[in-house]
């Protein structure tokens, strides 16, 4: 089977989910390519779209939240959104690409690709079966503008949102959000600490701001650092691609914090630590639940991350720290083994660790049915 996975770098989660699907498809012996469709126009255009999102999310999160609300309000209008029409400009380019590189199935972890394919089909152009993979715990704005053969949702109790947006029930598949095999592979805390050259004893708290190092980590650490010292807990801070944050924290704290930039060892860090403080990205939250680490959600990027936090909190899978002082309270609360155990049990009960495999099963079925 030849599979194409469409993604976009507006946040690391879309690319990470695409990598998880590619990894599983390759393991099964299929051909699987990951593509940002805008790279068919130019790398410069694709990078501009990705970096514009990242800059806005880091420097103006309230503005980003406002745009999310505008997208939500477009649902009340009969016309399609401007984003839909902008993505339509890629239709001819992408159709030509598929003629040169035919595939049996297309999976999408970002709705830009789904917009393009929907408009291709509206123009009578043929396309293989398409699977839209949601990476947040909500039906995001503009999802109802796309027409796919299957929609992968994180959980069945979110389906009412999708049904309200007019998405047919028989196309909804509550298979979960795919994570890479590193998060499902067995590894003990002792093995993880040894791999990272951490002390086998003591408590470690992992603090992460996602791939872009967002989440007001400076303000959080001002209070969390003092509390961690009092609780004999060492802080490990993942700064992601935010080199300015890394430099600031290095200058302020020196070796008192364990600072990490971009890393491919996130699964190992999660397994090595006793708790995780992170903004509520859909992928990171899912990865944490699959690993089974007590989780505290810090400042979200307004919009879908706010919904992610609410979903995890109401299902008992995380604590929510809306202010730094609440993060301090959470740090102290997670010294209670019973609370930690209950949270991890809820994570394992609510989150499908085998989502990547289940989604690929569906992709194989749709591709075979198309032949």
Strand content: 5-15%
Q: State the helicity in percent bands.
A: 40-55%
Order of helices and strands: EHEHHHHEHEEHEHEHEHEHEHEHEHHH
Number of helices: 16
- Sheet with most strands: 6 strands, parallel
Distance between the termini: 11 Å
CATH superfamily of the largest domain: Glycogen Phosphorylase B
Stretches with pLDDT under 50, minimum 5 residues:
none
The CATH architecture of the largest domain would be: 3-Layer(aba) Sandwich
Strand pairing plus helix content: what structural class? Answer: alpha/beta
Instruction: Tell me the CATH topology of the largest domain.
Output: Rossmann fold
Mean pLDDT: 90
The gross shape turns out to be globular
Strand order of the largest sheet: 2-1-3-4-5-6
Which CATH class of the largest domain? Alpha Beta
Number of domains: 2
Question: Which key features would you list for this structure?
Answer:
371 residues, alpha/beta, Rossmann fold, 2 domains, 6-stranded parallel β-sheet, 12 strands
Task: Describe what this molecule looks like in 3D.
It contains 16 helices and 12 strands. It is an alpha/beta fold and 371 residues long. α9 runs parallel beside α14 (324-333). The chain starts with a strand and ends with a helix. The relative contact order is 0.13.
Question: Care to give the gist of this entry?
Answer:
This protein has 2 domains: 2-178 and 354-370, Glycogen Phosphorylase B (Rossmann fold), CATH 3.40.50.2000; 181-350, Rossmann fold (3-Layer(aba) Sandwich). 49% of the residues lie in helices and 13% in strands. It has helices at 12-27, 43-59, 61-73, 82-88, 91-100, 111-122, 159-164, 189-195, 217-230, 243-253, 266-272, 282-291, 304-314, 324-333, 337-350, 355-370; strands at residues 2-6, 31-35, 105-108, 130-133, 150-152, 172-173, 203-208, 233-238, 258-260, 275-278, 295-297, 319-320.
